[in-house]
Design brief:
The chain contains ten helices and two strands, in the order H-H-H-H-H-H-E-E-H-H-H-H. The protein is mainly α and 283 residues long. It has a single domain (3-280), classed as Orthogonal Bundle (Arp2/3 complex 21 kDa subunit ARPC3), CATH 1.10.1760. A two-stranded antiparallel sheet has the order 1-2. The protein is globular. The model is unreliable at 260-268 (pLDDT under 50).
Length: 283
């Protein structure tokens, strides 16, 4: 099989898996607008599918040679750091330092890396905070898609690399979007159960999509801005202040570790022989 065919198969496998992931994510978040009864079966399916899908994405990324052993090791380190950063807000509304690290890491290492990092960071943080519950799978998928979208931000504008102040400005805008997007998604899993069934903001099982969307949006904007706005301000501020240094460090690690660089044994042997001869005076 030629290299072109291998590349096509690898890309098809990755695209197929992300399509399946997207479908499950959409089902888990949008079920209040799609089903006619309040059902916990959707949440159970969503919960038990989160980690296997993340692992499947990781395996595909490795098989595509986009993640090697060093990348996986760094993934574990960053997931550990992000999971420790998350509870540092000490319960203050929306103050979660992990988001800027997730965005910057995905920017450097790519969309697949960002997706897996987001999912694993939330999963590991649940062990630290005891945050296991039906909301966990939603948090994991939301963080995964924030990482995926951050890694999908173009690296170039035509022939010009997006770097420096322009890059920081772009990532700051994305940090604001990501903070608001996370709150929007998390309210979707909370809203059907939050306000009972007899209020003007309640979820209506079997109601029209327009009625439920209107009730949800009113609920979201009247109840969540106290969390989403501080999260957006804090994440964007960290991106502006620490972004240049973190990006430089991550890119330096990426370059020094030579991620996914092929091992050229012949070239390595030749250079080793030349070095030995130079040291022994044979050249």
């Amino acid at each position: 099989m030629s290299n072109t065919q291998n590349v096509f198969i690898f890309r098809f496998r990755t695209i197929f898996l992300f399509v399946i992931t997207s479908a499950i994510s959409a089902l888990g978040f949008l079920w209040p607008f799609l089903v006619t009864t309040r059902s916990s079966n959707i949440e159970k399916l969503f919960l038990w599918s989160a980690v296997p899908i993340a692992l499947a994405v990781l395996i595909v990324e490795i098989s595509n040679r986009r993640l090697d052993a060093k990348s996986v090791a760094l993934l574990g380190v960053l997931a550990g750091i992000a999971s420790v950063l998350r509870p540092l807000g000490a319960g203050v509304a929306g103050i979660e330092p992990m988001w800027f690290l997730l965005i910057l890491s995905a920017r450097v290492f790519g969309s697949g890396f960002g997706f897996v990092l987001g999912v694993l960071s939330l999963f590991v943080s649940a062990f630290i905070t005891g945050g296991f519950g039906p909301w966990l799978a939603y948090q994991m998928f939301a963080a995964g898609w924030i990482g995926f979208l951050a890694g999908s931000i173009p690296q170039r504008f035509f022939r010009f690399k997006i770097r420096g102040r322009v890059e920081i400005a772009l990532l700051t805008l994305y940090a604001i979007f990501a903070a608001m997007f996370f709150g929007l998604l998390m309210d979707l899993q909370f809203w059907p159960w939050a306000v009972g069934s007899q209020t003007q903001l309640s979820y209506i099982p079997g109601g029209s999509i327009s009625d439920n969307v209107h009730r949800y949006l009113v609920f979201h904007f009247t109840s969540s801005m106290a969390w989403d706005v501080p999260r957006a301000i804090f994440t964007s501020a960290l991106t502006i202040i620490a972004g240049p240094a973190i990006l430089f460090t991550l890119r330096r690690a990426h370059r020094k570790a030579a991620f996914v660089a092929p091992i050229e044994f012949g070239d390595l042997a030749r250079r080793t022989i030349e070095r030995v001869k130079a040291q022994t005076g044979q050249i």
